[in-house]
Structure formats: C-alpha cells, structure tokens
Amino acid sequence: MVATDLKSEVKKLMDKRSALEVEMNVIIERLCQPGGPGLSGNLVDSEGFPRSDIDIPVVRADRQRLAGLRNDYKDVTEKISQNIELLHSSRLPPKSSAAMNSGDSAGSNSQGVVDVSSSMSVMDVNVSRPFAMVDEISEESPAAEDGLQLGDQIVKFGEVEYGDNLLPKLASEAQMNRGRPVPMLVMRQGTLINLTVTPRTWRGRGLLGCNFRIL
Fold first, then answer.
1. How confident is the model over 202-212, as pLDDT tens digits?
2. 98 φ, ψ (degrees, to nearest 5)
3. Fewer CB within 10 A of the end CB, N or C, for the chain?
4. What is the pTM of this model?
5. Which residues, in sequence order, are bridge partners of residue 193?
6. Which stretches in the chain have pLDDT values below 70?
7. What DSSP assignment string belongs to 73-127?
C-alpha cells in the first residue's frame, strides 16, 4: 500500500513538474521574442529612461513569476527524488527471499519482473532529472542549428549530469569536445529528447551560442 501511494504521489508530482515547464516556456518565449527584453535585459534606454517599446510592468511581472516557477520546479524535483528513493528502498527484496526465489523458476520469473520494472522506473526518473535550462539562444548558433530550443531542460550534456559545480563542468565539456559531436539529453515539455550538439566556433560568442541557467 505504501509503495502504491508513493507511486501515485510521484506521478502527481511529475504531472505538476510538466505543467510548470509549460508555463515557464510560455513566459520565456514571450520575454525572448524579437525586440523583447529577454530574461535579464535592461528596462531603460541608453539615456536612463524607461524603454517605450515594451510594457515594463508586464515584463517585471513575468520575470517575477518565472523566478517563482523556477523555485517551485526545484522543490518539486527534490520531492520526486525523495519519493523515488523511498519507493526503491521499499521494493528491494530481502537477500534471503531473493536467494530462495533463485531456485524456483516460476517464482523467480514473477519476482524478477516486478524487481526489474521497479528498478527501471527508479533509474528512468533519476536519469531524467534536469539540472539546467536554456534561457537564451542565438540565431544561427551551433546550439540552434543542432536542434536545441529555448526552454529546453538539460538532463545530460556529454558526461555532465546533475551534481555540483555544473557551470564549470559544462564549459569544460564544451571545450574538450570542440569540433566533435556531444550527445545531449533534454526534457522538452515533459518529453525526453536525444540530441547531438557540436561545440564549434562561429560568428558569435562561445562554442554553443546559448546560455544555461542552473535550476
């Protein structure tokens, strides 16, 4: 019963996370549309006056909402990981039980299916934990040409996954693979997508031409 409740809770949390992603993507696209202020661009002109080409109160409201959504996203992701760990520990069979089942072909098959599917579920959720978001991307950049999109959640970039010191690791991974294709796993509106991005020099800044914001 406990495992069933945890599984149901994880499903609800993942649905909530997907909804947060959709709303964040809408705000990001609105702020970063051509002529827009972006996620952190100035709201005043070169003379220090409020820009007349944008609705400043709306921009401020969007940025504030986006900051709140990012915090909610981080909290939900942490809860998913915690529940998945509990679910995994609750479904691990005792060693004696596993040993007895190994001698019984019917019992072994039945127990094996449950254990393998549970392990795969845990692995899938842990592996699909995003650690960064693409919040800026330049036109005709390597990232754009290779299929990366604004709002994509980065799950894995080469050998870099969720952990500490992510920005230096991302920069190092790009530098070490200059001119070579790098496998990349992103979450886009709740769907995991495999991409291949090649860090390379181009007319703009950086080797990818995009900005990652750590979640």
1. 998 889 999 88
2. -65, -40
3. N
4. 0.52
5. 186
6. 1-3, 87-128
7. HHHHHHHHHHHHHHHHHHHPPPHHHHHHHTT-HHHHHHHHHHHHHHHHHHHHHHH
Angle between helix axes 56-91 and 2-31 (nearest 10 degrees) is: 160
> Whose structure tokens read 């098959």?
109
Number of C-alpha atoms within 13 angstroms, CB side, residue 172? 7
Residue 171 and residue 214 in contact, taking contact as beta carbons nearer than 8 Å:
no
State the number of CA atoms in the 13 A half-sphere of 58 facing the CB: 11
- Residue written as token pair 């409020």: 50
Q: Are 16 and 74 in contact (CB under 8 A)?
A: no
Per the CB < 8 A criterion, the answer to whether 80 and 20 are in contact is: no
Note whether 186 and 195 are within 8 A (CB).
yes
In the structure encoding, which two tokens stand for residue 204, read together?
A: 């703009």
R_g of the chain, CA atoms, integer Å: 22
Report DSSP letters for the chain, one per residue: -HHHHHHHHHHHHHHHHHHHHHHHHHHHHHHTSTTS-TTT--SB-TTSPBPSSS-HHHHHHHHHHHHHHHHHHHHHHHHHHHHHHHHHHHHPPPHHHHHHHTT-HHHHHHHHHHHHHHHHHHHHHHHT---EEEEEE-TT-HHHHTT--TTPEEEEETTB-SSSSHHHHHHHHHHHTTTS-EEEEEEETTEEEEEEE-----SSSSSSSEEEEE-
What CA–CA distance (Å, rounded) separates 186 from 164?
Answer: 18
